[in-house]
Design brief:
- This protein is α+β, with helices and mostly antiparallel strands and 502 residues long.
- The strands form 3 sheets. A 6-stranded antiparallel sheet has the order 1-2-3-4-6-5, with helices on one face. A two-stranded antiparallel ribbon has the order 7-10.
Length: 502
């Protein structure tokens, strides 16, 4: 991947970073912000007696006022900032260790595997999430999602935020880019996961921050007005505003206006016709300019969605178990509680579950198929009579359906590109998926995507085949725009520290 000046201080691709448990080889830079750099890395780990290679994300503490000399991996900073840097580094290590404990009690918080120091700085190793973020998901589906789908997505994230609050932490950067999907390898539902704790703050029981690093990061449209002045005390209503703004985004497919420009009338008008009055009123409360008018806790905010709501909406609000309120255990071996949600109305490239297109009512289709079946039976009977009277003879060079089937099977088994293309263009559904695989081998991602999607949408695939087709579509989509997606880090950045307040 070609890396621009934005990543000029990053460790080079191929560099081997020695951690406490594994050696991590850097593959690419995922993002760089005001306080750190995030890498995609690979490492060899042992699964029993077998060594396997897997991927992780590694966050490096690297403030914007630090640098590296050419050819060096050591982080450097001005002697005048030594005290500040040492304090911030200590905070970073504590943050990683705290997340390592908290993620063990809520599976919708990005999992941290280890924290270590090297190169005059520190790192923590996280799971690598490749399923795409909410912005990418909504964009892929052409706009906002339904009310029930929004609730299905936001509820596990709300539980994750509540878990943070129960452990005296504020996230302070909740937005579509910081909710990404953990893909299931076993056909289950993909799971929304909260990431990027670059500006999060931990507090004492008395509400005072335990970190020395200033927290003035904001995101227009998702940060409340009071956050622009800096965060000096524990107040869950900061995150509640961002959570409500994320609900707004999911329903509309658009970012809300900034906190200084938006008001209740604008929010209600934008959401009109997209959700029930109960849901609209609750989002309006959550995004109130006056923090005193917002719900005091995430639990209260989420309960506002189901109070007097239609039953189908209430049923969409799912619960995920986690240990709260309590301090996160000191051991990182606490059992992780599984969580997930279903997406009833839309799909996206990273989803390998329940992603077939929404289908219309089947009643008319069943009637039509029944009529067609009757015609076919009568037709086959007539054909049988003709075949018997003709002695099943065919003229020289004649061609039967059996020949077509055998020829298509031959093309599939022998990966005959020209023959598969011929059958695919004749709408022979069995040719779609193998043709997509052959186009992938030729690095023709556009054609490969075309036929992979045709295979998925022909509705003739088994559940297992649908999952394979979904994963192929995801792989092809990522391959097609990988350079733009990772090097520009424009709209769909997985790991990005918030921009500084203007």
């Amino acid at each position: 991947m070609a890396e621009g000046k934005k990543f000029e201080q990053a460790l080079p691709v191929g560099f081997k970073l020695t951690g406490g448990s594994h050696v991590y080889t850097i593959e690419q830079v995922l993002g760089q912000g005001g306080f750190g750099i995030t890498y995609k890395v690979k490492a060899r780990i042992m699964a029993g007696n077998i060594a396997v290679t897997t991927h992780f994300a590694v966050k490096e503490f690297f403030p914007s006022n630090c640098w590296r000399n050419e050819g060096s991996t050591q982080m450097l900073y001005s002697p005048t900032t030594k005290v500040e840097m040492e304090a911030c580094l200590k905070d970073f290590v504590a943050e990683g260790q705290r997340l390592q404990r908290i993620c063990s009690i809520n599976s919708n918080i990005v999992r941290v595997n280890e924290v270590f120091e090297a190169n005059n700085t520190a790192y923590f190793v996280m799971e690598y999430l490749s399923g795409g973020d909410l912005r990418k998901m909504v964009k892929y589906n052409g706009g906002g999602v339904s009310e029930a789908t929004m609730l299905g997505i936001i509820t596990p994230i709300a539980n994750a935020i509540q878990c943070l609050h129960d452990n005296h932490m504020l996230h302070l950067d909740l937005k579509p880019e910081n909710i990404v999907m953990r893909q299931s390898d076993e056909g289950g539902p993909d799971v929304p996961v909260l990431i990027d704790f670059g500006i999060s703050v931990h507090f004492t029981n008395d509400g005072a921050p335990t970190t020395t690093r200033p927290s003035k990061g904001v995101t227009q449209g998702y940060s409340p007005m009071e956050q622009f002045a800096g965060v000096t005390r524990f107040d869950p209503r900061l995150d509640i505003y961002s959570l409500a703004a994320t609900c707004y985004f999911l329903l509309t497919g658009r970012d809300p206006k900034g906190a200084f420009d938006i008001n209740a009338g604008i929010i209600a008008a934008d959401l009109h016709g997209r959700a029930s009055k109960v849901t609209i009123d609750n989002i309006v409360r959550g995004m109130s300019k006056d923090f005193n008018n917002r719900p005091a806790t995430v639990r209260q905010f989420m309960s506002g969605f189901v109070a007097n709501a239609p039953q189908n909406v209430a049923n969409a609000t799912m619960r995920q178990n986690y240990v709260a309120p309590q301090s996160a255990p000191e051991s990182s071996n606490t059992r992780i509680v599984s969580g997930g949600y279903r997406q009833p109305e839309y799909s996206y490239p990273g989803n390998s579950y329940n992603s077939e297109p929404k289908r219309k009512s089947k009643r008319g289709l069943i009637i039509a198929l029944s009529a067609l079946a009757t015609i076919l039976v009568l037709g086959l009977a007539a054909w049988g009579v003709i075949a018997l009277t003709s002695g099943n003879s065919r003229s020289k060079g004649g061609h039967s359906r059996d020949d077509d089937d055998k020829s298509l099977q031959y093309a599939i088994e022998n990966e005959d590109f020209k023959l598969l293309k011929k059958y695919a263009e004749k709408d022979s559904a069995r040719a779609f998926y193998p043709l997509a695989l052959l186009y992938e081998e030729k690095d023709n991602y556009d054609e490969a995507l075309k036929w992979a999607k045709a295979a998925l949408y022909c509705n003739e695939l088994s559940d297992s085949e649908q999952r394979k087709a979904n994963k192929l579509i995801d792989k092809l989509s990522n391959a097609r725009d990988a350079e733009n997606y990772y090097s520009s880090m424009a709209d769909d950045e997985f790991y990005e520290d918030s921009v500084a307040a203007p």
